[in-house]
Specification:
380 residues, alpha/beta, Rossmann fold, Alpha-Beta Plaits, 10-stranded mixed β-sheet, two-stranded antiparallel ribbon, 21% strand
């Protein structure tokens, strides 16, 4: 039986967050269950990009601070870090407010730039990874995901947070090799199983709905979640936002890999009442996934039913981040005639539907469009 603690927390007031964090960990068995004195513990927040905390793109610094203090008080040697999609870990951490809290507590940033090649024998799809040195410099990892939507995987939570353990530009290689959401999810599950965090604490006080994981809208959810089982935690959040957990590939394949369970009768909920947090109007695609499989014999049908990114010209500032981030070769979007005074355009024949452009756009100028045929299919 997997246990998930649901704790109501209505603001980022430090005292309230601190009290909630202590309550959540206590309900799972206490801090001694997750750390021994003098152990080296890595806190792994979600630092997708260097955005300020009010945008709800990253793990809130107050949540980070409360968790860090608890592990420090238990006698742990604490470090922290992540590998953002763009820019250096140090600059991103500073912009998110995490570096300020870390400096206050004398917590050092771990090495997320240096990669170490490993062979993971238990991997089902991916057995070879290049993992940030920070993982090997510590005795245990505490994962601090953010509750957000995600264009490719529908939902980003406990499992996907470990993708930040892949250094920098190497992330793009996985999107090229594994453009389909299902194959990409299997990789994420293998990666999570290798990193194997001791505990997952999700910041859902404010989540992100709509065009996540960067361009969506903050959504007040009033919740912190705690679990040793990432699949149970992610499945619980899905049920709270009226999303079938089986529609999220990382949850489906995570259970198949033995990483946890999404079955309701195998999950014990403790803490505050589940029904308190139910949010039926959470903006997320609640339909079954239609993964894109380029190069297949059904390529035409794939393009006719799978979502595709598009640019809202009036919101675009021609920063070129989307063009630079596109992992496809040749690139799927570009400036026509090299004219950078107008928005980039797509060549959808080259687009692998990884949605990296949508994920990273700083202006929320890239949305996902559902093709007409898909809309018709969704009616049945």
């Amino acid at each position: 039986m997997s246990k998930v603690a649901l704790i109501q927390c209505e603001s980022y007031d430090y005292d309230e967050v601190n009290k909630s964090v202590k309550k959540g960990i206590s309900l799972l068995g206490g801090i001694s269950l997750f750390v021994k004195k003098s152990e080296n513990i890595l806190l792994k927040p979600n630092i997708l990009i260097g955005d300020p905390p009010e945008k709800c793109v990253t793990t809130n610094p107050i949540v980070f601070e409360a968790i860090a203090e608890l592990f420090l008080s238990a006698g742990a040697n604490v470090s922290y870090g992540d590998s953002p999609a763009l820019g250096s870990p140090q600059k991103a951490a500073k912009k998110t407010g995490l570096a300020e809290k870390a400096d206050k507590l004398n917590i050092q940033m771990a090495d997320f730039k240096t990669g170490i090649d490993i062979f993971f024998e238990k991997g089902i799809q991916n057995k070879k990874f290049t993992i940030a040195k920070a993982i090997f410099d510590n005795d245990g990892v505490i994962s601090l995901p953010k509750l957000k939507t995600h264009g490719l995987e529908k939902f980003t939570g406990a499992v996907k947070n470990q993708f930040g353990c892949i250094p920098g530009v190497l992330k793009g290689e996985f999107h090229v090799k594994l453009p389909g959401a299902e194959d990409f999810a299997r990789m994420l599950v293998d990666l999570n199983n290798f990193v194997n965090p001791r505990l997952y604490i999700m910041d859902g006080i404010y989540g992100m709905e709509g065009n996540g994981p960067r361009g969506g809208t903050p959504k007040k959810m009033n919740i912190l979640l705690f679990s040793k089982d990432p699949i149970a935690l992610d499945a619980t959040i899905c049920r709270l936002i009226d999303l079938n957990p089986e529609y999220v590939p990382t949850i489906k394949y995570g259970m198949e890999s033995g990483a946890g369970t999404y079955l309701e009768d195998e999950i014990e909920l403790v803490g505050d009442d589940f029904n308190t947090f139910l949010t039926s109007d959470f903006k997320i695609n609640k339909k079954p996934l239609r993964p894109y499989k380029p190069g297949s014999i059904t390529d035409f049908l794939n393009k006719a039913i799978v979502q595709k990114p598009y640019i809202i010209s009036k919101k675009c500032v021609q920063c070129a981040i989307c063009v630079n981030m596109c992992p496809a070769q040749p690139k799927a979007l570009f400036f026509k005639d090299d004219d950078k005074s107008i928005s980039p355009i797509y060549n959808y024949d080259d687009c692998i539907r990884c949605f990296c452009c949508q994920e990273i756009c700083p202006e929320s100028a890239i949305k996902l469009k559902t093709p007409f045929l898909r809309k018709i299919i969704n009616l049945f």
